[in-house]
Specification:
The chain is built from 8 helices and 2 strands; from the N terminus they run ααααααααββ. The chain is mainly alpha-helical.
C-alpha cells in the first residue's frame, strides 16, 4: 500500500513537470538558460569584460577579454582590460606588464596611465606612480574624479615619505612572550 502511494506521488510529479514550459521541454520560458544563437552577432568581448570588471567578476572578465583578443587581436583596449582585471585580482606584477604593453600600443589613453599608476602605487613604487598619474591627469585635462583622487593619494604619500634630517638612534629588540617583540630606544 505504501509503495502504491509513493508511485502515485512520483507519477503526479512527473506529469506536472512534463507540462508546457517546464523541465527539459525546450520552451522559451523554461528554467534553463537559452542555447547559443548561432545566427546572431555576438556581443563585443571588451564591452562584456568591462561590465564584468564593474561587477567585480575579474576572472570572468579575463575570459571575456581573451575571447575579444581572438576576434580583435591584442589591441590596447584588450591589454588594458586584462591588466585592469588582474589588478582587481591583486596580481600587480602581471597587471603592470599588461598595462605597459597596452601603453606601447596607445600612449594617449589616460585610463591606461591611471591604472598603471595604481599598479605602481600598489607595488610601493611611489615616485614612478606619481609621474605616471601626473601624465594621466594631464591627458585627461583633470576631468576624471578617479584620476584626480589617485593623484592626490600618491602626492600625499610622497609628502609623508620625506624625511628632514637623518637621526641616529640606537634601538634594542625586546622579546615579550613567545612571539611578541617590542622595539625600544637605548638610553645613555
Amino acid at each position: 500500500m505504501a509503495r502504491a502511494g509513493v508511485w502515485l506521488l512520483i507519477s503526479c510529479a512527473l506529469t506536472a513537470s512534463c507540462g508546457q514550459g517546464a523541465g527539459l521541454s525546450g520552451a522559451d520560458n523554461g528554467p534553463f538558460a537559452p542555447g547559443v544563437a548561432r545566427n546572431q552577432e555576438s556581443v563585443d568581448g571588451i564591452l562584456v569584460g568591462n561590465r564584468l570588471i564593474d561587477a567585480g567578476e575579474y576572472e570572468l572578465a579575463i575570459d571575456a577579454f581573451t575571447r575579444a583578443a581572438l576576434d580583435q587581436g591584442l589591441s590596447a583596449d584588450v591589454l588594458a582590460g586584462m591588466g585592469s582585471a588582474n589588478l582587481g585580482l591583486g596580481r600587480v606584477h602581471t597587471a603592470e606588464r599588461l598595462l605597459r604593453d597596452a601603453l606601447e600600443k596607445d600612449e594617449t589613453s589616460p585610463e591606461i596611465w591611471n591604472n598603471l599608476g595604481v599598479a605602481l602605487l600598489e607595488k610601493g613604487e611611489i615616485a614612478e606612480a606619481e609621474q605616471v598619474l601626473k601624465r594621466a591627469y594631464a591627458l585627461d585635462n583633470g576631468q576624471s574624479d578617479s584620476i584626480r583622487d589617485n593623484l592626490r593619494l600618491v602626492l600625499a604619500k610622497t609628502e609623508n615619505s620625506v624625511y628632514d634630517e637623518p637621526q641616529e638612534q640606537d634601538y634594542k629588540l625586546i622579546r615579550r612572550g613567545s612571539s611578541d617583540y617590542m622595539i625600544r630606544t637605548i638610553s645613555d
